[in-house]
Amino acid sequence: MDAVATKPKRLELPQAAKDRLWSESGGHCQNPQCRADLHGFASQIHVRELAHIIPASVDGPRGAEAPELTSDERTLPENILVLCPTCHTVIDKAPDKYPADVLRGWKRASQDARARAFGTPLFASRAEARQHVEVLLAANRAVFELYGPREGVFDDDRADQWHRHVKSTIIPNNGELLRLLRTNQRLLTGSERATMSVFAVHVRELEDRHVAGDWTPGSTRFPPAMESILED
User: Fold this and answer.
1) Measured in Å, how far apart are the chain's first and last C-alpha atoms?
2) Which of 42, 71, 89, 109 falls between 20 and 30 A from 157, CA-CA?
3) Could you give the number of structural domains in the chain?
């Protein structure tokens, strides 16, 4: 008698990750054209409406975009959106219309909106803003100097450390830097706003590389002018 084929067991998301996603979304659908309030069925949201950007299995919607991701990587909060039931159904029925890049954009916009509303201070002066920005820039600079890519240096251990620290330190710090600058952009000069815009592209592409595995050549480099932004 032939063996019955079984699907690989779908990994369960840890409760801490579910709580983080619910908090991140503010209890609202992360589709920016929807933003439905999900509190009416909060008890079901952790089970039913956690939507994978890259699916839990390679044959799911958008699975062909990153087939190299491991099962563990597919369950990271960075790969999951909180959506209302309607939006969850829509994106999975039309993956060509809603590719991974679009969904990651939704997630970033939701994170930024929540942070601006509840977690990003308004500064009274450029000097005050610079104090906060400098701490984040210095932390990122330290990681780069220790582990960042060097021309002619091919060291797998160094590269692994760089990848790890980019995900754990630089990407979160970059997000906070962007939120601080956007919330306080009235303090920026015209050239500093242009620098911020280039930095925003760099941030998105760095995240695409190290979180989503998109190693498309020609990524935007960190703009050197960011090191002195808000300095007088």
Assistant:
1) 79
2) 71
3) 2
**Above 90 in pLDDT, residue 11?**
no
Are 99 and 149 within one domain?
A: no
Task: Decide: helix, strand or coil at residue 206.
Answer: helix
Output the CA angle 195-196-200, nearest 5 degrees. Answer: 120
**Phi, psi of 50, deg, nearest 5:** -90, 105
DSSP letters, 84-145, are: -HHHHHHHHH-TTTS-HHHHHHHHHHHHHHHHHHHT-PPPSSHHHHHHHHHHHHHHHHHHHH
Q: For residue 203, is it within any domain?
A: yes
Is the overall model pTM greater than 0.70, yes or no?
Answer: no
Whether the CB-CB separation of 80 and 29 falls below 8 Å is answered with no
Nearest of 174, 170, 196, 176 to residue 121 by alpha carbon:
176
**Same domain (yes/no): 97, 142:** no
The reported pLDDT for the residue numbered 103 is: 93
pLDDT, tens digit, 9 for 90 and up, residues 63-105: 888 888 888 888 888 899 999 989 999 999 998 999 999 999 9
Question: Which pLDDT tens digit goes with each residue over 50-64?
Answer: 899 988 888 888 988
- Determine the structural domain holding residue 157 and report its residue range: 122-228
Q: How far apart are CA 161 and CA 158, in angstroms?
A: 5
Q: Which residues have a Cβ under 8 Å from the Cβ of 98 and sit 6 or more positions away?
A: 62, 90, 91
CA distances from 226 to 178, 191, 221 (A): 11, 11, 11
